[in-house]
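User: Could you write out the 3D structure of this protein bound to zinc ion? I've included everything you need below.
Assistant: Certainly. Input first, then the structure.
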Amino acid sequence: MAQTGSGTQTAAVLFNQGSDFKFIVQNIPIPTIEPSEVLVQLSVTGLCHSDLVLAQGLVGACRSVLGHEGVGRIVALGSAVSSYSSVTLNSRVGVGWLHDTCGSCSICLRESGRRHCLAQRNHGRHVDGTFAGYVVVNAAFVQPLPEGPPDEFLAPILCGGLTVYTALKRCGARAGQWIVLLGAGGGLGTLGIQYAKAMGLLVIAVDGGKEKEAVATKLGADVYVDFTEGDVVAKVKEASGGDGASAALVLAGSGRAYNEAIEMLGAFGTLVAVGIPKPGESLEVHPLKLIDLGIQVTGSLTGSLTDLNEAVAFVERGIVKPLVEVRSLEQLPLIAKEMEEGKISGKVVLKHRH
Ligand SMILES: [Zn+2]
Ligand SMILES: [Zn+2]
């Protein structure tokens, strides 16, 4: 078992944040913990698209150790972490995007509001993340995990699964209604198809190419629409009975996807923004479009701890089986480039060696 703050760990460290970023695998010291924190020895970490966005410098400064989908066990407890805490030494836990929040602002005090706190700190952004053997976590924010499911099925839920599951709840569509997932073949999309089907929704998967079609169909999408061929909006409307879909979740980081999504909606439809478009791209919509059809536009960011417990329960019951490719942390320099080129279907989970 690791000693707090002594020894070294293997980490994939970010250099040259920006368009020519790179990860270099090296040994760095194991961090020390404050009284309210715990040290988690990680067995795996998921790779999230936002890690790539951070590395590319598209959303401001970040740490050199990214990563926010970690699964592991607690190996050291801070002196102020009481025996009444929900976690203890050796507890199996998950580490997500939120490291901590101020806990006292008007946003934090709202139900499920903490993830919107303006003073929040995130793993990989303000404090080191999970692309290392160990991570320091605030004891109040560490997520207890069930013992049953394998590590590689739980890691993708901590950000990707949680995000898309919460967005599906937020979109308001009910069982039997048509929804559209734009970017259905990626990490969020492959999880989204499974959650949506488990929730009784009818799924139109939009992505590009035959490979993504095979993946989306295998996971249960009712209809696949290839955005590289023909009139995407017309095809989606036809598939959803002519009037348009009840909801569209934009998971792709593309302005085009946003502007097509709004056209795919029927009356009282909801567009949920999840993907971060490239610089200079945005959603442009005339207010009359919203007025005439009663359309709502909203956004969704990760989810609450309740949402996470629900999202994990689908995996525990075997209803959602994340499509994962397990690789090693040492391969991150290569994998990050593959992700940048859009070559990855499903989620990549990186194994840590100890
Ligand atoms: Zn706050
Ligand atoms: Zn993420």
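The chain has two domains: 8-158+303-351, 161-299.
User: Perfect, thank you.
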